[in-house]
């Protein structure tokens, strides 16, 4: 997404790190750059507002449940794969591989 206007901070960089901004997980210097970008770029500001609303809704509906640490690790691992551009497997790659059941010969 891009509004077509030149910015000090590129739209793609802002959108790639949007959740870091929303979660206050970036240095203050970068947060200032992002705030400036949102002031200049209405498409990114709209995306920011949408993602902020989704986070609030999820927190309101699910914010009272603790996330199991293994689930959190799996989700973060998949996000890392997606961010790095790698293919994300459809099955759970962290689960132990189960040997297929022995085939039983039909009775005569």
TrEMBL record:
Highest taxon in the source lineage: Bacteria
Pfam families membership: zf-HC2
Putative zinc-finger domain: residues covered: 11-44
NCBIfam families per UniProt: antisig_RsrA
Descriptive protein name: Mycothiol system anti-sigma-R factor
InterPro entries in the cross-refs: Anit_sigma_mycothiol_RsrA (IPR024020), Znf_put (IPR027383)
């Amino acid at each position: 997404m891009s509004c077509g206007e030149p910015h000090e901070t590129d739209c793609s960089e802002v959108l790639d790190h949007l959740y870091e901004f929303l979660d206050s997980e970036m240095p203050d210097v970068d947060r200032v750059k992002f705030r400036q970008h949102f002031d200049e770029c209405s498409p990114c500001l709209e995306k920011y507002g949408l993602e902020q609303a989704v986070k609030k809704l999820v927190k309101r509906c699910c914010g009272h449940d603790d996330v199991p640490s293994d689930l959190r690790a799996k989700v973060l691992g998949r996000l890392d794969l997606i961010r790095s551009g790698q293919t994300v497997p459809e099955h759970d790659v962290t689960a132990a591989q189960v040997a297929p059941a022995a085939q039983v010969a039909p009775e005569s």
